[in-house]
Amino acid sequence: MKSKSTTSENPGEVGVRDLRDNLSRHLKAVKAGGELTVTDHGKPVARLVPWDGMSKFDRLVAEGRITPASQPKQPLPPPLKIEGGLSHLIKEQRG
User: Fold this and answer.
1) Taking the CA atoms of the chain, what radius of gyration do you get in angstroms?
2) For 18-30, what is each residue's pLDDT tens digit?
3) How far apart are the C-alpha atoms of 41 and 53, rounded to whole Å?
4) pLDDT at 52 over 70
5) H or E element that contains 39
6) How far is 10 from 37, CA to CA, in rounded Å?
7) I need a labelling partner for 12 at 20 to 30 A (CA). Which of 25, 28, 60, 74 fits?
8) Alpha-carbon gap, residue 29 to 45, rounded angstroms
9) Domain boundaries, the chain
């Protein structure tokens, strides 16, 4: 039995089974600049696109959609010392 080809019905779609059975071929097409939508029972579940070498964070910064923090993270203050543990503190706060 021959598997479905992405060129027959929708050139940009591939079913999960076809992707599994022909992974090398599909990855080669994506590396060449193609994009594939992976479907499960005809419903889109994922998209394969060529790797551009940037993290999602770096891509969003480059697109101007987010701005990185202007100051580095500050260390947290030391934990508070409480007598009797957390349960005791909660009971005390409730009155």
Assistant:
1) 26
2) 999 999 999 999 9
3) 31
4) yes
5) strand 36-40
6) 10
7) 60
8) 19
9) 13-62
